[in-house]
Amino acid sequence: MFEPIILAQILWTGIATSAPFVLLTVGFALTLKVTGLWNFAQAGQMAIAFYTMFFALNGLGLPLIAAVGLGIVATAGSAYAIEVFGLQVLRDRQSGNLTFFIFTLILSEFTIYVITLLFGTEPETLYQSILSPVDIVGGIAISDWDKTGIALTVAALIALYGFMRYSREGQFLTAVADNARLAELYGISAQRAYRVVAAIAALFIVAAMYLIGSHGGIVPNSPLELVLSAVIGTLLGGIGRVFAAAWASIFLALIQSFSILFIGSRWQNLLLYGFLFATIVLFPRGVRLPRLRWAR
């Protein structure tokens, strides 16, 4: 069981399967950094992203590009509506953090309930078959899904880093994240920043749900567990440290992958909740990892 080739396979599988969780965590952590809100409404957006693509592919028979495009439109549109007609209204009323938390959580539950009525509770995948061609490299099985997931995630992170560091809009997001009121005094619109970050998070959510939906089954309640993984990665990486949260998600995926050497798969969710508890109690400020400029 502890042969090098087996350990190498588990390592590769853990890194590959971490790809969608990294994307979801970055979207969640970025939203938290800029808006200061624990936006659990993203769970509902995950459900919207997946089931829009699912219906476009299997119900309408559209090609993949069109299905992903519709997923982006639906997810970004819902994110914009939540920001403008929900979160901004609460800000204007100067509502407390607990109100925002309850609003986003209930909104996700409502969205998932509606989707359950429309699509049922049976697991669904984007494709009829989730089998992916596999190449054997040095004795390690590497699937096309693995390569797609890693390439997509790396490209998304590089694009985000470049956007945040070198673009004018990205610098505005940084300014709002540091001090929204001061940014407003310099003519930077915090409302615009919140809407931009909602759109960015929507793109990450669609990419992640495509990877998850093309690799395994999704039920309407799945996003609630997925957002929990994003929360754990965000806490472990340290609130406000977006790229550190990405590394934390990879670490969590590796822990879960190697745990099969010691515990059964049915205990995976218990392990997840255990990490959440330990992170809150032992690492309230996150684990201090080497960080990039934006990960501060």
What does this structure look like?
The protein has 12 helices and 2 strands, in the order αααααββααααααα. It has 296 residues and is mostly helical. It has one domain: ABC transporter involved in vitamin B12 uptake, BtuC, CATH 1.10.3470. Strand 1 (134-137) and strand 2 form a beta hairpin. Helix 3 (41-59) runs antiparallel to helix 4 and helix 7 crosses helix 9. It is globular, with a radius of gyration of 19 Å.
What attributes does this structure have?
296 residues, ABC transporter involved in vitamin B12 uptake, BtuC, 12 helices, mainly alpha, two-stranded antiparallel sheet, 2 strands
Write the layout of secondary structure elements.
Blueprint: H1 4-17, H2 19-35, H3 41-59, H4 64-92, H5 97-119, E1 134-137, E2 140-143, H6 144-166, H7 168-178, H8 180-185, H9 190-213, H10 222-237, H11 242-258, H12 268-282
Antiparallel strand pairs: 1-2
Helix pairs in contact: 1-6, 1-11, 2-6, 2-9, 2-10, 2-11, 3-4, 3-5, 3-9, 3-10, 4-9, 6-7, 7-9, 10-11, 10-12
Gyration radius (Cα, Å) is 19 Å
What's the CATH C level?
Mainly Alpha
Main β-sheet description? 2 strands, antiparallel
Instruction: For the record, give the distance between the C-alpha atoms at the N and C termini, rounded to a whole number.
Output: 40 Å
Shape: globular
CATH topology: ABC transporter involved in vitamin B12 uptake, BtuC
How much of the sequence is in beta strands? Answer: under 5%
Individual helix count: 12
Q: Which segments are poorly predicted (pLDDT under 50) over 5 or more consecutive residues?
A: 289-296
Task: Indicate the percent of residues in helices.
Answer: over 70%
| DSSP strand tally | 2
**Sheet with the most strands: spatial strand order:** 1-2
